[in-house]
Amino acid sequence: MEELKTFLETPNLVGFNANSVIKSTSYYAQQVRSFRQSQSNLTDLLISLQLFSLNRGDEYLPSTLPSRTGLTFWSVTRDVSTNELLIKISNTDTASATLTFELPFQNIAPTVTVTVLTGAATASNTPENPNTITPKTSTISVPGKTFSYTAPPISVNVLSVVAS
């Protein structure tokens, strides 16, 4: 946390002053999911505090990166109890990255929930513009075991799909 009166650089997670709290892009990068339906602001806050690392699944699924020296990385895990696959993608390139995933399961849900955090390389949330970079959630259709996804430039992405 950083007091905004002494604001010298983008805070690690949260900046504050007497009137407001500013969530940094680093704060949002630690999230797995946000913007779920809830009944109160407190519930929204509690959901937003779920850290990226806490939603790692309990089974690691091997995958192959397109290049060991590339600028796009990912991991694939699975929550065995819910059959939810979590594909976490980091694209550090200034260009989009189209990725193809081949899922080794017989039953694949028809849609993937996608949460994306992206923005200009130098953008940050400030007291004047506290929502410059926030996660956006959407869905994409999955035609079967193989699907493609284009990760925007300079982005953190979480894809969630049920597969068994």
UniProtKB/TrEMBL annotation:
Gene3D superfamilies cross-referenced by the UniProt entry: Golgi alpha-mannosidase II
Keywords on record: Glycoprotein
One Pfam short name: Alpha-L-AF_C
Domain Alpha-L-arabinofuranosidase C-terminal: 6-155
Entry-linked SMART domains: Alpha-L-AF_C
Keyword hit for tRNA processing: no
GO MF: alpha-L-arabinofuranosidase activity
Any one GO biological process: L-arabinose metabolic process
Protein name: Alpha-L-arabinofuranosidase C-terminal domain-containing protein
Organism: Clathrus columnatus
